[in-house]
Amino acid sequence: MRSLYIHIPFCEQRCYYCDFCSYVSNNEIKSKYVDKLIDEIYSKGTDENLKSVFIGGGTPSSLHYLLIERIMTAVNKCFRLTNDSEITIESNPNSLSEDKLKAYKNCGINRLSIGVQILNDDILKAIGRIHTSQQVYDIAPLVSKYFTNFNFDIMLGLPNQTSNDIVDTITKLNEFNPTHISMYSLILEENTNLYHKVKNNEIILPDSDEVVNHYNLGLSTLHDLGLERYEISNFSKAEYQSIHNLNYWECGEYYGVGLSAHSYINKERFYNTCNLQDYLSQTDFKTIYKEKLSIQEMIEERVMLGLRMTKGLNVVKLKNDLSYDIMLDKKDIIENLVNNHFLQFNDDYLSICQDKFYVSNGIIEKLI
Amino acid sequence: MNDRLQHIRNFCIVAHIDHGKSTLADRMLELTNTVAKRDMEEQILDSMELERERGITIKLTPTRMKYTYKGQEYILNLIDTPGHVDFTYEVSRSLASCEGAILVVDATQGVEAQTLSNVYLALENNLEIVPVINKVDLPSARVDEVIKEIEDTIGLPAQDAPRISAKEGINIDKVLEAVIENIPAPKGDEKAPLRALIFDSKYDNFKGAVCIIRVVDGVVKAGSKIRLIQTSKTFEVTEVGVFAPQSKKTECLMAGEVGYLCASIKEVADAKVGGTFTDIDANVEPLAGYKQVVPVVFSGIFPVDSNDYEELKDALDKLKLNDSSLQVQPEVSQALGFGFRCGFLGLLHMEVITERIEREFNIDVITTAPNVSYKVYKTNGEVLEISNPANLPKAVEIDHMEEPYVNLHIYLPPEYVGAIMDLCQEKRATFVDMQYVDNKRVKLTYDMPLNEIIYDFFDALKSRSKGYGSLDYEITGYKPSDLVKLDILLNNEICDALSIIVHKDKAYARGRSIAEKLKEVIPRQMFEVPIQACIGNKVIARETIKAFRKDVLAKCYGGDITRKRKLLEKQKEGKKKMRKIGSVELPSEAFLSILKTN
């Protein structure tokens, strides 16, 4: 089964660190965009079962809920959603309301992801987020009233962030009983507002050693609360790992619709234009071809993505799917890494030892 | 004495660097029509690219000129000499094949350290010295003072010295006349058995070894059967000739003449500089007069790419043929693989050789930190000479060690004396003497370990005297010294290429600075890497390179997979180019910069 990603490229304000495809636009454009998006869903529809749908952004919750309902209606018409399909929408605390939450639930959305980042208003302001921690405290009880399955995004590597901020944020958010936490580090991308502020020394970011210390602190705090790491940046209660994300890391296929969305179908990658005007004016939804993966590249991706997960890489599945026996091909390297406690092997899965995730790229690079 | 010899003069030019030696040589070639003015390249005798770039002479090039004086034609053989302290031996070889020397003194600079040491060498070889005052056209020229300096410090009458400008071509004829008038004609018996000194040799791809010779007695020509006295090997001469300045075949070379000889000599060792050729069955004594040369600075030279080992070996063989002062021995290092331990006359010599390998032979090399040769007295009575720190016996087996000392002369303006005395103090030097050469210059004499000079003394001298200080030195012998071997451990493994022998008092500071430098250049690894500087088992400095940990900070989403894969592929490509020291991987640049750390 495949997944579907739907991109909503609108925000009320662009965060200083963001280099994603996102615009601050008026309602007319948003509505035109959704029309076009629905056209694209129809053009790609195959009537097949989907394991997951992810409405991401941008800030999907900044759209009127009627537009979300229209999108979901189109998805339901063009694809089949089952009881087990995971249907997620991304949201910003300030743009959620009880009405929206009810509407989301009614149109079949069963998982919410809320971009909290940090419960410290000075830091939120410094990185250009428009919400406050109070808005999180206000909306979170309503979220847990309507949804059992929801995620909070939190961020590391923020200016002036202390270890206390990390523990405090995780602890307070846990009171709302989330099933999932994504903990990402801020990546300073060129051509962002934050990049220039950092270059001009207006903002000083913590160095990577400090961020890694914060990550480790977050890891143990989450662990104590029963949220276990199942992928480098993702933590969940048992049975609540994100189906949509796992599909990426297990090299599953997916459709991507909307501005700049990527698809991976029949071993080929495609992506849509990043230009909003171009997207709105197109009629035939011609995607841009990116690459057809060779066997070698497919193997590399399996290894690279598989080892990001705590459970690791299923070497038997790899052998069955791509006729590649990594345990044989990389025998000496794997033995060496296992003996030095970088890798472990259990029940068909080759995985990175829990305390060696910090050098995962170095390990993966030896295996590709 | 026969008429032929009366019309030959063999001479060289000695001068401090930059005093105009090469320019004067060029003007003489022009004036004697040896080289047409339109063919004149700047400093034609410095034929190596490197020499012209650095403005120094490394290889000797003897040149034959013809000059008519008072109706008589004279053959003037100019033997150019190097001007740097490292090349004292090369100077001594040229001196031994001359009867006289032109001493060029810069009218604006006066007598310099180098000038003096070269003059003393010339005097030791019984050469007649013809002083010449150069750069008299410059506004800052102080001709009379400089003449007085020459008379006072060298004890050489200089009132009649030609006052010239080599650059402007002023009074060059006076120099040639002074050579003819003052330098004795060579002596020698052309009817006696052949005796010819090899004072230099070059390698030619077609002719084999080209020996540059001074014929002392006898005659040599193509077809002559000759024997090298030192090795008893015999050869048949294929060609003789002179340089004017390009090589030009001649009928023969006779007693008193300077020129070249080829004899299908393939083996490097058979053209050994300092050797004497004689007739195949003659029974004569070999010629003396050559100073034994001993390398004083040692360093490992390794190919950056281990596949270049054979090429490096060839390159060093060829360089050795041209440069008998270079010493080469195979060496194996754990960190660097197969290479050579080379002995040099000094740091400049080492740099020149390294650069020639890279430029002329196109091989990238790594040169390890230079060191001197130590005498090690073992408890069992054995005495070893150690020029590679890796070969030093264990501390318990060593009774005591000795290191080479030099008699160091520093010439500098009085205002820097304080600063330079402090510097010498820091470098374990013992003050011997201080003299005012004149009211503008002071000569300091110190007894100093050579090791300190090759470390960073020259740079420190230049910087603390704002460039005015100059130095020369001669090795005086070995003295007992409290030396220790300083090992560098990376991830608990000794890196042999980084071991040094150092005085105990300096060990802590050196250990600390090496450890700090390593921490700076070694990238973070998949594990924590301790860097330790150790004497025996005692750790005297320690740094830690923290493990690379950032990989938990990068997320990965659907649209990002291709980019991530390409990054990893690139990282893997990069790793292939990494060098390893034990278990520590590092990029080539970091690897090189570590080994360049003194």
Question: Overview of this structure, please?
Answer:
The complex is a heterodimer of chains A (368) and B (598). Helices cover 41% and strands 22% of the residues of chain A. By secondary structure, chain A is α/β, with parallel strands linked by helices. Chain A folds into two domains: 2-249, Aldolase class I (TIM Barrel), CATH 3.20.20; 308-367, no CATH class. In chain A, the strands form three sheets. In chain A, strands 7-8-6-5-4-3-2-1-9 form a nine-stranded mixed beta sheet, with helices on both faces. In chain A, strand 2 (49-57), helix 2 and strand 3 form a beta-alpha-beta unit. The two termini of chain A are 27 Å apart. Chain B is globular and about 95 Å long. With 598 residues, chain B is of the alpha+beta class. The longest helix of chain B has 18 residues, at 504-521. Chain B is built from 14 helices and 32 strands. At the A-B interface, helix 8, helix 9, helix 11 and helix 15 of A face helix 13 of B.
Short summary:
The complex is a heterodimer of chains A (368) and B (598). Chain A is of the alpha/beta class. Chain A has two domains: 2-249, TIM Barrel (Alpha-Beta Barrel); 308-367, no CATH class.
Oligomer: heterodimer
The named CATH superfamily of the largest domain in chain A: Aldolase class I
Q: Domains counted in the coordinates of chain A: how many?
A: 2
Mean pLDDT of chain A: 94
Bin the strand percentage of chain A.
15-25%
The strand line-up of the biggest sheet of chain A is 7-8-6-5-4-3-2-1-9
Tell me, rounded to a whole number, the average pLDDT of chain B: 84
Beta strand count of chain B: 32
Query: CATH topology of the largest domain in chain A, anyone?
Result: TIM Barrel
**Fourth-level CATH superfamily of the largest domain in chain B:** P-loop containing nucleotide triphosphate hydrolases
Specify the overall morphology of chain A. globular
Give the spatial strand order of the biggest sheet of chain B. Answer: 10-9-15-6-7-14-11-12
SS-derived structural category of chain B: alpha+beta
Radius of gyration of chain A: 21 Å
Cα separation of the termini of chain B: 58 Å
